[in-house]
Each structure stands twice: as structure tokens, then as C-alpha cells.
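User: C-alpha cells for DUF2007 domain-containing protein, please.
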Amino acid sequence: MEELLRTTDITLIPLAKTLLDAEGIASFELDVNMSVLEGSIGILPRRLMVRTGDLDQARRVLRENGVKFEG
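Assistant: Done. Predicted C-alpha cells:
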């Protein structure tokens, strides 16, 4: 698995997951529990992971849909 994006924006990962699902790209969210435990103050980022072989396509899908992310 490779990290596709890391963010404290609670709306970005659901958007990215929806776009990836529509393209048949499986993704997995990490650090959800840590983010919940910190009390919604937005200091601990969540990560969205994809399979290594899907990373380039996943990045392309996000870019084509105007999703801002590092990578």
C-alpha cells in the first residue's frame, strides 16, 4: 500500500474515496481512530492508502477532478 494523500480536512478523504471507488480503485483510510480521539481540533491528519499498482491512476483521477493533494 502507498500513501495517496494525508490531510486534516474531514471532507477531502470521503471525496477522494468516492472518486476512486467510481474508477474501481480500492482505498483504505488510516489514522481514523487517532483523529477521532484528538477531539476534532484538526491537528492529526488522516491518510488514504491505495495499492502500489494503482497509485499513478489514483493520482490522475484526483487531479482530473480538481482535488488538491501533495504528490
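User: Anything notable?

Assistant: The radius of gyration is 12 Å.
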